[in-house]
Amino acid sequence: MQLRGCTALVTGASGGIGYATALALAGRGVTVQATGLEADGLDRLAAACGASVLVADLGGSEDLRRVVDWAGEVDLLVNNAGYGAYQPFDQIGDEDAAAMLRVNLVAPMRLCAALVPGMVRRGRGHIVNVASIAGYMGVPREAAYSASKAGLIVFSDCVRAELAGTGVHVTVVLPAAVATGFFAREGHPYDRRRPRLLQPGDVAVAILAGVERDAAEVFVPRWLWFPSRLRGAAPGLFRLLAARQFAGHMRRR
């Protein structure tokens, strides 16, 4: 997909990956529309690159409809908004789990349902769903978050198959941990030695490259494709290695 001259909607753009991606897109000649929870971050984004911004909570149906009406027709949809929580699976409250699923999974599904038909009519467009390597590996004490991202990965696969031949492409992005406000909101600092924390700009660069080459999957860093494939090819070995990787988390239960 040629980026220059396109119109993009980026969610979760108050900071982190969404903010960096919106900046990068604007720098490539894309007209950017950005949503997020924090007005200050969106105001900084608008001042930095001229993006149109809208404060919205994608966990609410009314705000979702407002975003769709405000965005209009877009060529590129970047579903980036999301959050996690750090707690044992049996301590996740019903409302907390439902709220996380609404933002991390249901909102991308509904935005795709609302905005992609216009792309199909025009014969071109691109969807980027920012998932997480946690959606492939599963992270102890992040069960709801991991499950929501696993759902987003499978949703991306389904939509990609349905849109084959329409000129609309789907990229799912699978980053490792990123140095954003995610862990502060989650309530637990990132304390694993590997993979190392990424910078939001690293993921933004990978997103733009993935869109330009119509990539189905983008792993950041790239070597993360190996554990994702190992899980399918050798599940026993994968579980053994994953247990060693996350042993400290399981002991702290």
Please explain how this structure is put together:
- By secondary structure, the protein is an alpha/beta fold.
- The chain contains eleven helices and seven strands.
- The protein has one domain (7-251): NAD(P)-binding Rossmann-like Domain (Rossmann fold, 3-Layer(aba) Sandwich), CATH 3.40.50.720.
- Helix content is 51%, strand content 14%.
- It has a seven-stranded parallel β-sheet, sandwiched between helices.
- Helix 1 links the parallel strand 1 and strand 2 (31-36).
Looking at how many chains there are and whether they match, the oligomeric state comes to: single chain
Strand content of the residues, in percent? 5-15%
Beta strands, count: 7
CATH superfamily: NAD(P)-binding Rossmann-like Domain
Characteristics of this structure?
single chain; 253 residues; Rossmann fold; 7-stranded parallel sheet; 11 helices
Concise overview:
The protein has 253 residues and is α/β, with parallel strands linked by helices.
Topology, element by element:
Layout: E1 7-10, H1 16-27, E2 31-36, H2 39-49, E3 52-55, H3 61-71, E4 76-79, H4 94-122, E5 125-130, H5 134-137, H6 143-162, E6 168-175, H7 182-186, H8 200-212, E7 217-220, H9 225-233, H10 235-245, H11 247-251
Parallel strand pairs: 1-2, 1-4, 2-3, 4-5, 5-6, 6-7
